[in-house]
């Protein structure tokens, strides 16, 4: 089990999701922005690793407007060395990476232009991970999308569209249960139709319940992940007091978190904490999980007493490039 957080480190004075308005786009501005984003991403990964946080979600804004028709700049070629260096750091330190396109990525939309822009956006995410030389344990997670007045038809449209995505996307894509439209059971039905792994969101299931116990959900979810996908990924958050059900909390509730860890045994997974104070809660969760035998806390760190190390991770041979956060 690796523990991490998404996109933004509040302790460092930089961001890897720097962007700008479309009206002020230029190749020069894009190049400068991407250089700053990659530099910050490298700092964040190093900061995380030194503290035992081995799971991180890279911002979709790493390369602003990369999937937009306005962008004709060869960012992957220009930043090849930087992307490969970051990928080498990720692989050799045993870090797990994910990405999460925004809510406008809807491959089951009945509108052709939204489907096409969503396909382009997913291709961009796959290109980032491919350029880093990461294997298919680095995942791109999305929600199923809208119901559009007919849940069954919309779910079937998702399955049909998934088959038309580039292989570079399909090998990385996972679906996540949401808190409004498609619960965990809906995602299992889509897995049966496509083989796509299901990422379980603990918090969303509390709002839109599957009616299954946590061990039942974890067992069903694990069965959707193949060995080449790596450990199942799980999202964890808590309710913000006084806000609508499903609103993410500012800080982790450690009592509830410890109970989750206890109830989730013996299932192993990598845990993304979608908590608004980011690395602060992730570090608190890491300390709270310190005696959990599933925990992997960093190869170059002193392993806390009671931690059972997993088999040493070895990177695969790099694949050829294929194909083209949020809280």
CATH superfamily heading: Divalent-metal-dependent TIM barrel enzymes
Fraction in helix: 25-40%
CATH architecture: Alpha-Beta Barrel
- Strands of the biggest beta sheet: in what spatial order? 1-2-3-4-5-6-7-8
End-to-end distance: 22 Å
Radius of gyration: 19 Å
Name the structural class: alpha/beta
Keywords:
single chain, 327 residues, alpha/beta, TIM Barrel, eight-stranded parallel barrel, 11 helices
Describe the overall structure:
It is a single chain. By secondary structure, the chain is of the alpha/beta class. The protein has a single domain, classed as Divalent-metal-dependent TIM barrel enzymes (TIM Barrel), CATH 3.20.20. Helix content is 38%, strand content 10%. The chain has helices spanning 27-50, 75-78, 80-92, 112-131, 151-162, 167-170, 184-194, 202-207, 214-222, 254-264, 279-288; strands spanning 3-6, 55-58, 96-99, 139-143, 173-176, 198-201, 233-236, 270-273. Strands 1-2-3-4-5-6-7-8 form an eight-stranded parallel beta barrel, surrounded by five helices. The longest helix is centred in the first third of the chain and has 24 residues, at 27-50. Mean pLDDT is 91; it is low at 299-327.
């Amino acid at each position: 089990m690796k523990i991490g957080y998404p996109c933004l480190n509040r302790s460092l004075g930089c961001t890897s999701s720097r962007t700008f308005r479309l009206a002020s786009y230029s190749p020069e501005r894009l190049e400068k922005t991407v250089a700053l984003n990659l530099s910050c991403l490298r700092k964040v990964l190093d900061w995380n690793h030194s503290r035992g946080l081995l799971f991180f979600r890279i911002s979709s804004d790493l390369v602003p407007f990369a999937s937009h028709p306005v962008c004709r700049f060869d960012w992957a070629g220009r930043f090849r060395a930087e992307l490969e260096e970051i990928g080498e750091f990720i692989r050799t330190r045993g870090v797990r990476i994910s990405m999460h396109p925004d809510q406008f990525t809807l491959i089951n939309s009945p509108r052709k232009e939204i489907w096409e822009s969503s396909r382009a956006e997913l291709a961009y995410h796959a290109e980032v991970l491919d350029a880093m030389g990461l294997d298919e344990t680095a995942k791109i997670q999305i929600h199923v999308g809208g119901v559009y007045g007919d849940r069954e038809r919309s779910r079937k449209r998702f399955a049909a569209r998934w088959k038309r995505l580039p292989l570079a996307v399909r090998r990385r894509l996972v679906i996540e249960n949401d808190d409004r439209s498609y619960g965990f059971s809906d995602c299992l039905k889509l897995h049966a139709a496509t083989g796509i792994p299901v990422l379980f969101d603990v918090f969303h299931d509390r709002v839109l319940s599957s009616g299954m116990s946590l061990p039942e959900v974890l067992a069903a979810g694990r069965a959707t992940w193949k060995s080449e996908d790596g450990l199942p990924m799980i999202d964890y958050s808590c309710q913000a007091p006084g806000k609508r059900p499903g609103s993410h909390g500012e800080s982790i509730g450690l009592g509830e978190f410890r109970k989750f860890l206890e109830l989730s045994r013996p299932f192993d997974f990598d845990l993304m904490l979608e908590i608004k104070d980011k690395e602060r809660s992730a570090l608190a969760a890491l300390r709270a999980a310190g005696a959990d035998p599933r925990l992997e806390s960093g190869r170059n760190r002193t392993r806390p007493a009671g931690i059972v190390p997993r088999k040493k991770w070895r990177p695969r041979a790099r694949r050829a490039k294929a194909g083209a956060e949020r809280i």
